[in-house]
Design brief:
FAD-binding domain-containing protein, FAD/NAD(P)-binding domain, globular, 26% strand, 6-stranded mixed β-sheet, 16 helices, alpha+beta, monooxygenase activity, oxidoreductase, 8-stranded mixed β-sheet, binds flavin-adenine dinucleotide
């Protein structure tokens, strides 16, 4: 087995150019496959808000040679801290330097657009990325014999009538995936849980106020926890912007088909009445914001069609707030497995391997994120007191996130291949 490139060069179509699709294009292209990405939007960009890059993803970005570029704008938080919503009192803190010592790579806070640009620039060297190209269907053909082995080629149909055949189609087309219909007949887009206002406040305004200046200078990832809602804040873009994700219960002010609506400081103020003074000051500085639907759905049971179609990222598991991290891990695992086919008949086996490796991981992360969501939104009372006590002990005990942050894609793939030789 060659750990870097595939002995059998495949033609691969990736549907969607989000962070998952770009990671797939980058890794599969570097593995020697011919990769084409179709993106529906006219430009390959990401929405302009922040994203947290935990050590399990920093490890991948370092492996892909992108760490140096990332560090030009990413912010390394000094700590994660948890605070009460009404007084702002800190109830727990975790030192990020200890995290870096333990896992060998940092946690970063990044502007999504910047991470997307870095990934795009790296992926376009090894993949053909075509925008303005909406995929309307993925069809699976009849098997044919090729180079002595049985081969089935899926075909991607585009809205302008183009049809493109490939050996493998990777559905990285997000929560409303079209590819999912081919894999498991499910075209639903999940159920709405909470909403989140997403905002970037200029730190040049925050440093004019001593209370807000501290938030900029201490570079913590701060989570304010309150009944039914929470706020996460951190610096991005070399410290020039303070990203805020303000989650609150869903309201019915969004069309079923839309993902976001513009929100306003007044709307946000109304959602956070009684929250500590720094939150009120931050809301006063919000230049513009949008309110996002947060979507949850059970992890799909079928991720793979043996006709050569596979789903990654939100298309098979929307996970809040770790979805991009999981989409990028999915891509890395899929590409590592697809360095192994010797014949076309190996492809379904390797796609099954991908689902076998990734489903337990994503199910675990979904469970963690649901529990965290519920824990951050507790009403004041015995549950909240127990939570705050547990958080107050984090500083001494350190993190217990080995399973979450210590994940190693190549070890997972190697173990699977050893147990299930081709
Ligand atoms: C409020 C909020 C905060 C979050 N914070 C974090 C965080 O801190 N860390 C984290 O890891 N995750 C976070 N997430 C989750 C993360 O945003 C998603 O899980 C992640 O973007 C999924 O990536 P993806 O590539 O699978 O899909 P997407 O990013 O949705 O990309 C899908 C792409 O496919 C394209 N597309 C769709 N349909 C078609 C088609 N038919 N033909 C062609 N192209 C198509 C779309 O235009 C898009 O470019 C957050 C999400 C929310 C809502």
């Amino acid at each position: 087995m060659n750990p870097n490139t595939s002995p059998l060069k495949l033609s691969i179509v990736v549907v969607g150019c989000g962070l998952g699709g770009l990671a797939a294009a980058l890794c599969l292209g570097r593995a020697g496959h011919r990769v084409t990405v179709f993106e529906a939007a006219s430009e390959a960009t990401e929405i302009g808000v922040g994203i947290q890059v935990p050590p399990n993803v920093s490890r991948l970005l370092r492996e892909w040679g992108l760490q140096e570029e990332l560090e030009k704008t990413a912010v390394k938080p000094r700590a994660a801290s948890w605070r009460r919503y009404d007084t702002g009192t800190m109830v727990g803190e975790l030192d990020a330097r200890k995290l870096e010592e333990k896992y060998g790579v940092p946690h970063y806070n990044v502007h999504r657009g910047e991470l997307h640009r870095i990934m795009y620039n790296a992926a376009k060297v090894v993949a053909n990325i075509i925008t303005n190209s909406r995929v309307t269907a993925v069809n699976v053909g009849e098997p044919e014999m090729r180079q002595g082995s049985r081969r089935i080629q899926p075909t991607v149909i585009l809205s302008d009538g183009r049809q493109v055949c490939a050996d493998v189609v990777v559905g990285a087309d997000g929560v409303k995936s079209v590819t999912r219909g081919t894999v498991c007949g499910d075209s639903s887009s999940g159920s709405k849980t909470n909403s989140a206002h997403r905002v970037i406040v200029p730190t040049s305004e925050m440093i004019k106020d001593s209370a807000l200046k501290e938030l900029v200078e201490n570079t913590h990832v701060t989570c304010w926890m309150g009944p039914g809602r929470n706020i996460v804040g951190y610096c991005v873009s070399g410290g020039t912007g303070y990203n805020l994700v303000l989650s609150c219960p869903s309201t019915d002010d969004m069309e079923p088909e839309s993902w976001s609506i513009p929100s306003s400081p007044d709307m946000i103020r109304n959602d956070y009445l009684g929250w500590e003074p720094r939150i009120q000051k931050l809301i006063d500085l919000i230049p513009s914001s949008s309110k996002w639907k947060l979507v949850d759905r059970p992890i799909l049971s079928t991720w793979v069609h043996h006709g050569g179609v596979v789903l990654i990222g939100d298309a098979c598991h929307p996970l809040l707030p770790y979805g991009a991290a999981m989409a990028m891990e999915d891509a890395a695992v899929l590409a590592a497995l697809l360095t192994n086919p010797k014949t076309y008949t190996d492809i379904p086996h390797l796609l099954d391997a991908y689902a076998d490796i990734r489903k337990p991981r994503c199910t675990y992360i979904q469970d963690v994120s649901r529990k965290n969501g519920a824990m951050f939104h507790l009403d004041d009372g015995p549950g909240q007191v127990a939570r705050d006590l547990a958080l107050s002990k984090l500083a001494e005990g350190g993190d217990n996130n080995e399973r979450q942050f210590g994940y190693n894609v190549h070890e997972e793939v190697q173990q699977w291949i050893e147990k299930n030789p081709l």
